[in-house]
Amino acid sequence: MKKDIHPEYKETIFTCACGAQYKTKSTIDDRTIDICSNCHPFYTGKQKLVDAAGKVEKFKRRYGQN
Q: Three-state SS string across the chain, please?
């Protein structure tokens, strides 16, 4: 390998919005992530319905709830 052309490889902590922390090595600094395997619906079996603007309720009012 050539010297002085590769980025620094250091320990990095990834922190999820749910509070889980993962220590790994990377070339980037500590990061915050939105979703991880502890809170992802595919892995937990629980579906989260994120409705920030009330779009689901608007859809149900408009098209009924069959």
A: CCCCCCCCCEEEEEEECCCCEEEEEECCCCEEECCCCCCCHHHHCCCCCCCCCCHHHHHHHHHCCC
